[in-house]
Amino acid sequence: MNHISTTLIVEGSLWLLVLFSVATWSLIVVKAVQHGRQSGQNRKFTEAFWQAVDLKAASALKDFDGSAAHLAAAGFEALKNADDESSHDLQHSWGRQDLLERRLRQQIQKERRSLESGLAVLASIGSTAPFVGLFGTVFGIIHALSAISASGSASIDVVAGPIGEALIATGIGIAVAVPAVLAYNFFVRRLKSIAADLDDFASDFVSLAQKAGFRLGERPAPRKPTVVSDKGADGKKEVFA
Fold first, then answer.
1. Which of 43, 44, 114, 219 is deepest in the core (most CB within 10 A)?
2. Whole-number Å distance between alpha carbons of 121 and 24
């Protein structure tokens, strides 16, 4: 392998690590803003939700965003769809509680997928960047040894410089991987915390809906039982509603 080939490989490895670093820090900024907004929005919505007098009043809350607001909106939509008796397809064949739980579960998964976006890139960079750096180092050492062989001397002064330059790629690879791994672990922990909060909120929502008969409006008044009596004056049966 000639001098030009090894030089291109080493430089290509370094430029790839630079791209990895740019992608890592861009994702760190984007995910930090996303998680920060989610925390603030969820806190504001849950405070307003629990201050509502009932589910119907809570369903009227507007101008809220965030995963908790989206989850509540999905629950309210499920309760409204449960009142639609004109549809007879499989989508509307569930019971009220089953329909609500199914819709909440789907929304939680949707919110998780949104928060998980970009984490696979961080994980990939964290696991591959050291090997990319090592790949550049290997060819850097090959280039250095070729240069030493051409000079005809193996003294420490001749060897130290080229070998040291070759090892820079490994150091850069590690420097790129460390922030990616730390950021991945941090955002995964935040994701689990938000998902746990959404699960708790969904359980509370189902409990509140159960108390309301899985309806946003008032419960229909129960029908009075029909009583049949044989005590009529004319000897006929009398029916009382």
1. 44
2. 8
